[in-house]
Design a protein that fits this description.
This protein has 150 residues and is of the alpha+beta class. It contains four helices and seven strands; from the N terminus they run E-H-H-E-E-E-H-E-H-E-E. The mean pLDDT is 91.
């Protein structure tokens, strides 16, 4: 079941995100950050357990970022990622966002969902505010992809 995240999901979201962050596949998120941005998140719940999460962070009047997109390894390949992404894109569309981007190490998934590769240099500098927290900054090796919403 895909649903909006609640405050009770913070520990599970943090655990999933930090599982991948320990492998340097995404940024760590603190409990504080997650509480502050909980309204941005969707989760997938199976048998009472949160097994995946995805956030939509609005950055400007027409721009949002898909972030903290993660699914527990044993649940990958079960269309959960597509469902989480669709929930965020539906949210973006309802808000009136016209462009969504992501920085990722999983470009194939996003390309299968109609995202196009873009040069990170074309993304507004405001986007990079989260990048300052990363130990790889300014030498980011994530791949930037973007989707124009109709």
């Amino acid at each position: 079941m895909i649903r909006k995240a609640t405050l009770n999901d913070v520990d599970a979201i943090k655990s999933i995100i930090n599982f991948y962050a320990k492998q340097e596949l995404m940024l760590h998120r603190s409990v504080s950050e997650l509480y502050e941005s909980i309204r941005n998140f969707y989760v997938c719940e199976i048998d009472g357990d949160v097994v995946g999460c995805c956030g939509l962070q609005v950055l400007w009047v027409d721009l949002a970022e898909i972030l903290s997109f993660a699914i527990l390894p044993e649940y990958r390949g079960k269309c959960i990622g597509t469902q989480l992404l669709d929930a965020c894109l539906d949210d973006a569309h309802e808000l009136g966002v016209t462009s969504v981007f992501t920085l990722t190490y999983a470009p194939v998934f996003f390309e299968k969902n109609n995202f196009k590769l873009v040069d990170k240099a074309t993304l507004p500098h405001k986007i990079w505010s989260g990048c300052i927290k990363c130990h790889k900054f300014p030498d980011c090796d994530e791949i930037a992809l973007s989707l124009e919403l109709s």
